[in-house]
Specification:
With 133 residues, the chain is mainly beta. The protein is 10% helix and 54% strand. The protein has a single domain, classed as Beta Barrel (Lipocalin). The termini are far apart.
Length: 133
């Protein structure tokens, strides 16, 4: 078995789903900077309450081998985004993908993230996140 990648820093395209399909599949763009086993970053996603706007959040987490754990805290978003969201996942595909579950109060769902590789993909994804509802 290959060892986990040394660093998950970079741009990640992701999406999360709501429990029992009670919400849209929501795309997001994460930017991660890792130092040692800790990492920080930002997430942008469509604001589900204010159509056409983006919700912005910070993330703080840790990585241990293939396990990834982080908390997303919204900083620029409408009412309804007051509570932090916990994410727990696993690195797969040689460190190119993270899959797992998120939880918020009494709700949870799934998420997946794929590492970006090109500047063009970054621009296209950012446009999709800010315009998609």
């Amino acid at each position: 078995m290959a060892s986990a990648p040394e660093n998950i820093s970079g741009q990640w395209d992701g999406q999360f789903t709501y429990p029992a399909g009670d919400g849209p599949v929501t795309p997001f763009l994460a930017t991660i900077t890792q130092r040692g086993t800790s990492f920080t970053g930002t997430i942008m996603e469509p604001d589900l309450y204010l159509s056409g706007n983006a919700a912005e959040a910070t993330l703080v987490g840790v990585i241990a081998g293939y396990a990834v754990d982080f908390t997303k805290t919204y900083r620029k978003a409408a009412m309804g985004y007051e509570n932090p969201v916990d994410y727990v996942g696993q690195l797969t595909d040689k460190g190119e993908r993270i899959t797992g579950v998120w939880s918020l109060l009494d709700m949870n769902g799934t998420f997946e993230m794929t590492r970006q590789r090109s500047a063009k993909a970054k621009v296209e994804r950012k446009e999709a996140v800010t315009t998609k509802r």
